[in-house]
From TrEMBL:
PROSITE patterns documented for this protein: IG_LIKE
Signal sequence bounds: 1-21
Protein's organism: Pogona vitticeps (central bearded dragon)
A GO biological process held by the record: cellular response to lipopolysaccharide
Protein name: ICOS ligand isoform X2
InterPro entries: BTN3A2-like_Ig-C (IPR053896), Ig-like_dom (IPR007110), Ig-like_dom_sf (IPR036179), Ig-like_fold (IPR013783), Ig_sub (IPR003599), Ig_V-set (IPR013106), T-cell_Activation_Regulation (IPR051713)
């Protein structure tokens, strides 16, 4: 009974799938690795359990564990060959070199051997969302015309592109083009804007990756003398803002610490609290000269 064709077992599980009440969601960055959890809390005795990892959109297995090595070899998905690792302790699945085609829902199915037959013991779904950063938008002026294009490429999923122009809407016309798919599965996008003649022009083109909560803006400016400025600013996601604020605070506090340290070396009799001198001893010129001579002597050794 235990050696029945695995193809029948997989087909049965495919037809008996419930809703996504136990579904988790993770984001995998293009080209990196991602771990999908099985979330199986019972005893993990591999000699009594059969663990199957499968993708909802495929009729083959991504990876699996079989206690009986004599079972008929299952059909594995070719696109995952040499790209996955099954964890014997947690039953999780690791996918390497994530591609856009890996996006989808995966199921971890655990079957327990009871009276010589395997029965469904646990099932958990994980929705894998793939993401990739877009390149910095590039604004290009077409010759001497008042026509500009904004381009960005190799991101995932499809982005949002919009222009910001501080002038009357009647002075420009925007031609938006849908995102195009690249051979590697990523997307590129382009947009063209045509503006009526003006002495000073300021354009902003922004690419938004909603899945990564990230936006990149490029600014293009021209002045009456014909000069131009093309720069960009990255809007960090909320998760990165605490690190930026901590760095700024450290840069502000460091000079104060160095100043107090140097003052205490020149005149050790001072006492500080919260960076404020609360008790100051008399520091004579002889003390300072002695300190300086000690420093000079140390340097010449």
């Amino acid at each position: 009974m235990a050696s029945r064709s695995l193809g029948v077992v997989v087909l049965f599980l495919w037809l008996q799938r419930p809703g996504s009440a136990n579904e988790n969601e993770v984001i995998g960055i293009l080209g990196s690795s991602v771990e999908l959890e099985c979330r199986y809390a019972d005893e993990k005795s591999l000699d009594k359990l059969r663990v199957l990892w499968q993708a909802n959109s495929k009729s083959c297995l991504v990876n699996a564990h079989f206690p009986n090595k004599r079972e008929k070899a299952p059909k594995y998905c070719e696109e995952f060959r040499s790209r996955t690792l099954f964890n014997n302790e947690t039953f999780s699945l690791e996918i390497w070199n994530v591609t856009p085609g890996d996006e989808g829902t995966y199921e971890c199915v655990v079957q327990r051997n009871k009276t010589m037959e395997f029965e469904l013991d646990h099932k958990a779904s994980t929705a894998l969302k793939v993401a990739a950063n877009y390149s910095k938008p590039t604004i290009t002026r077409l010759g001497n015309e008042m026509t500009f294009t904004c381009n960005s490429s190799h991101g995932f999923p499809e982005p949002k592109l919009h222009w910001t122009i501080p002038m009357d809407n009647s002075l420009y016309n925007i031609t938006e083009q849908p995102a195009t798919s690249e051979p590697d599965g990523t997307f590129s996008i382009s947009s063209t804007i045509k503006i009526k003649s003006a002495s000073n022009i300021k354009l902003e083109c922004t690419i938004e990756n909603v899945r990564l909560l990230q936006s990149i803006t490029t600014i293009f400016e021209t002045n009456s003398s014909g000069g131009s400025v093309n720069n960009s600013a990255l809007s960090a996601s909320p998760a990165h803002r605490p690190a930026i604020l901590s760095t700024l605070a450290l840069l502000l506090i460091l000079p104060v610490i160095l100043y107090i340290y140097w003052e205490k070396r020149l005149c050790p009799g001072r006492t500080y609290a919260a960076g404020i001198c609360v008790e100051e001893a008399v520091c004579t010129n002889a003390d300072v000269e002695t300190e300086n001579s000690l420093i000079s002597g140390t340097e010449h050794r």
